[in-house]
Amino acid sequence: MSQSVSTVAQRVLAGVLVAALAVFGVTALAGCSGGNDAASNNAPADAGKVRIGTMPTEDSLPLWVAEADGLFVDQGVEVEITTFDSAPALSAAITAGQVDMAMTDVMRAVKLTESGTPVVLEWITLGETATEGRFGVMAPADAPYSTLEELAAAAAAADAPEGFGVGVAANTVPEYVFDALCDEAGLAEGAIPTQEVASLPERYSLMASGQLAAAALPGSLLALGEANGMKLLADDTAGANVSQSVMVAREAFEAEHHDAVVAVALAWNAAADAINADRDAYLELLAEKANLNESIADSYPVSTYPSAYEQGALKRPAAELVDPQIAWMAKKGYGIAGTSYDMAAGTITPGSES
Asked: How far, in Å, CA of 346 to CA of 248, rounded?
């Protein structure tokens, strides 16, 4: 139910008072680092309204914490969070201008921009380091292989059944991570066949029942599989950092409402600080919002989260993390050759199709 005008006005006034107190050295948010407190002084007193789209995944936990704890209000911004059941639905909402910002991944950000809806990569929501967030490859409990190398050998065997392969979805983080893990294992391209299975629940189910040789999955489904005796063949928590989710803003919105983006980033910082200080305290909220299976809802490891704003600026995703993904998209035929990323501005420039 929407808030009354008077309630919103009271909260905005509260945000103004907090900002004013901060000028005189009064700490507004307990638990924030000194750098974040200093940054909050730059937040606008009334940044307006921001519509944010997200998926029901762990990447967005700081958004839900900021919403629950009134941290957006503290920064003088009204935020409406909408959760979408699928990435295509979220992309459609961005294209239609139904959301101003969104938690997504680099591949979708590039595709949106190349398709005529330019977005700005504002900050990494999860995956600033390899230990943040997890993607990997999982096999059935009774699979006769325990590593990617052994899976490749099984795929090459004369008695390999038709359709033997790893379930993936084209142009997604799990597929990108799968390719990177195969490369790290020294496997030739195509050494392990893949099968297109767009639905994550279906992909997991087909793997668990032995109808897929393995499946490329995100952390929550890897944890579910481990709890049910499935075999983890490899994941991306060690070695090169290859998977990130990102917060993006429609380029037109960023140009006109940069202060609102900064206000959201400062609220994110406060929420991330709170989570990182006591991760277990937010497991219940994560389980609810990310729809964690009840068998792992009480034990799922809550990640640490990166900051969004430091030293007076948004923390744009590093080029060394984004550029390889753009190159991979072009190589696979998912993107346009020559597309480039400007880290300073967070913008993507589409290449030429000619």
From this structure: 9
